[in-house]
Amino acid sequence: MKRPMLDRGRLAIGDMRLRITLRELMTTAGIVGASSAAAFLVKPMNGEASEALIFVLGIMLCGAFEGLTAALIAAIAGFLIYNFYFAEPVLAFRLARGSDIAPLLVFNLCAVISGVLAGRLKDSVQAANRKNEALSRLLEMSQALQSAVRLGDVAAALRATPSARSGVSLHLFSIKNGRLQPLMDGAAQPEWQAMAERSLQSVDPIRCEDGLTAHRLDGSDGPLGVFVFKADAVTRLEPPFMAALANLFTLAMERATLSEMIEDVRALAKTEELKTALLSSVSHDFRTPLTAISASASSLIDYREQLDRDVSLRLLQGIVDDCERLNRYTANLLEMSRLEAGALPTNLQKIDVIEMLVAVMQRVRPRLNERRMTRLFTGTDIVVLADASLFELVLVNVLDNAILYSERKSCIHIEVEDDGGYCRITIADEGRGIPDEDLERVFDRFHRVARTEPSPLGSGLGLAIAKAFVGALGGSIAAMTPGIGLAGTRIVICLPLVKEDRPQ
């Protein structure tokens, strides 16, 4: 199919097809008429030389104001009028003497040359202005598309730059799952969709039908979509401009497509990493207590007659502790999956932090194993808005970590204070501490600090749940070293305070 010319309005530089609009023709006729009238007025005083100069000036004005085509028309009209009305003999297209041919030819040559030069200068200025305008529109569109990282961003950038597409209705279509889909509102009109489909199947990347022009957007690995546009009655579209605009869309859509593919690959890799970590965590954290429960239960069954009361109670207590451990781990998994899915705490209520901490300390006390727990609560009526069960789970997780990674007969210290509109909870221990490079990573899911010395392994979920919960409530949590003295770790939780209404 022959590629259509998009510029239907005016001659381009180097294009020999001369065109003129009705307005330009009327202006040219007016200037030629005014020149003729002026020549009639000066003829009695100055003769034919002044008349010829007036016509030359009129032809130059036509070229300067209306371009090359107007200058050529003015030159022909001026030649005919001057020869018929002013050159002797008047009212006849013939010469009185043979010697009159030289001045007449010089007049016409000067008129044509001056008109052509003025017209080409005018056309060159107009072409330069159009090119500058096109470059400005392309630059505006390019700047808007630079931040597009998804296909939807490309359409949003197009909607955000109305001046770059003034006088033009255009729509973008992308190829998804082998089908064309509109990226912009209103792009699914039947004629636009059909035009895009035909362009996608066409050999020529540019197709023009019924006033619509479609430009297929070919990327490095094949078609990415179709760009369909339609200009209004007064807008002139240069083919290089539309081709450059299509190239901008192609680059932006290809970059957005690659960006989405990279995100998908990263998400898949992260999912696989989490799956591996979850399986590793489950295999360890379930197997260890289940093995202990199985061993204790088997001993109670097989040797119940030989075991005294204290040994039996110790084995039963071990079963209870391991069941509690499994229960905490299962609760952590469930809450982590809920928080990761974007479910924010919904059962929010006013909670007295000191009362909650006292209850949590009582709950973990059986697991202290000769460790000491001290506290320093400053202030009263320290109230936060939180989910009670999740808040308790967070505090239990942090205290369990302090117990797990500290030695027997060491100290665990808990502080609560009102810190300028925030409740500040500090839990410090005298344990092994956390390396500086892991102080932020300990809040990642399934992250465990690598240690050279033998140490217990947690699930890697407790602090991750704490961070998600605290962040959802507009607070913060941080791990610091040292904890107590020069050893251990300090976990600091800050939550917004709720001011209680006091009776007057």
Automatic annotation (TrEMBL):
Keywords carried by this UniProt record: ATP-binding, Kinase, Membrane, Nucleotide-binding, Phosphoprotein, Transferase, Transmembrane, Transmembrane helix, Two-component regulatory system
EC number of this enzyme: 2.7.13.3
Coiled-coil residue windows: none
InterPro entries per record: HATPase_C_sf, HATPase_dom, His_kinase_dom, HisK_dim/P_dom, HisK_dim/P_sf, Histidine_kinase_KdpD, KdpD_sf, KdpD_TM
Localisation: Membrane
GO CC field: plasma membrane
Membrane topology: Multi-pass membrane protein
Reactions it catalyzes: ATP + protein L-histidine = ADP + protein N-phospho-L-histidine
Residues spanning the membrane: 20-42, 54-81, 101-121
Superkingdom of origin: Bacteria
Gene3D superfamilies the UniProt entry points to: 1.10.287.130, Backbone structure of the membrane domain of e. Coli histidine kinase receptor kdpd, Histidine kinase-like ATPase, C-terminal domain
Top EC class for this record: transferase
GO molecular function, one term: phosphorelay sensor kinase activity
Residues of the Histidine kinase domain: 281-499
Protein name: histidine kinase
Higher taxonomy: Bacteria, Pseudomonadati, Pseudomonadota, Alphaproteobacteria, Sphingomonadales
